[in-house]
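Worked example

This section walks through a single chain of length 334. The input is the sequence exactly as stored; nothing has been trimmed or padded.
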Amino acid sequence: MLNDFPLWPERASALAGNVDALYIFLLIVSGLMTALIFVAILYFAARYRYRPGVRAEQIEGSIPLELTWSVIPFFVFMAIFFWGAVVYFKSRTPPRDSTEVYVVAKQWMWKLEHAEGQREINELHVPVGRDVKLIMTSQDVIHSFFVPAFRMKQDVVPGRYTIAWFRATKPGTYHLFCTQYCGTQHSGMIGDIVVMEPSQYEAWMGGGPSGPLSATGEKIFAELGCVTCHRSDTQGRGPNLMGIFGRPVLLEDGRTINADENYIRESILDPGAKVVNGYKPVMPTFQGLVTEEQLNALVAYVKSLSQPGESGPNAKPALAVPAKSSNTKGSQVQ
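Given that input, the structure is written out below as tokens.
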């Protein structure tokens, strides 16, 4: 009978249990406090009710009582804070070896592309037991990627990437919703996450006609002429992109930032925003010249230029020394 009226959606991801445990704890604490307050109200209403002939007395405060109702809630709230922080950072930190899927939201559909090149609309096939990292952006307005069974929700905004990840634990088909009102057909912006056994997933993945997304990005990189500036030698007018992803980059203004997906994206669309040390802001913008799908492919290609072991917090700042050639250096990732 209880299965016909579930209190919450099915748990189908590695993080779902942690989210539910914290939620249940909050419900228990709130319920106990509500019950305690009601009992106190009833007790005081009966104990200190008006009675003819009985005069009211001034009651002095109690320091032990005041300390008790201050200290105990403090520790309860601290426990909720640290527990919630642990759950939050786990949900926002994808494992390094995650399978990557690029997501483009638009009115009113989800367009998804695997790193291997397979494309889907309003449907995402993933293997059970594997970490999946979603690199998401919007083509128009703010959307929100929500999978109740995974206890995962992430806003998808135009002009930048937002990241989410999950590891499905049970094969099946799970609902995907947009939970940010995005226009007249917002309620129809739905889809499915299809979780498959590894063997079935490999068979499905092998049926795709497309090549790797990074290969598509390499082709676009050449077509746009980026290879003439971003060369592996010192003769290029732009920075060498080999191994740049995931490493700290020293900028012309003295700041050091991490070369992540958003940095690469911004460098393509707004090259003058973060100029690399030793280079001049001469690179043209590609805003309006490349689609969101092409941007994803370019980002995937630049990421593919980084070999394992080159990235990480202990890596030395990239491009920290100005180039030895002339002042006609390019500015950014192209």
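What to look for: The radius of gyration is 27 Å.
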